[in-house]
Amino acid sequence: MIICTADAVPGFEAVECLGLVKGNTVRARHVGRDIMAGLRNLVGGEIDEYTKMLAEAREQALDRMATEARRLGADGVVTVRFATSEVMEHAAEILAYGTAVRLRKRSGDAGREANGGSR
Question: Is 44 exposed, middle or buried, given 0-12, 13-18 or 19+ CB atoms closer than 10 A?
Answer without folding.
Answer: exposed
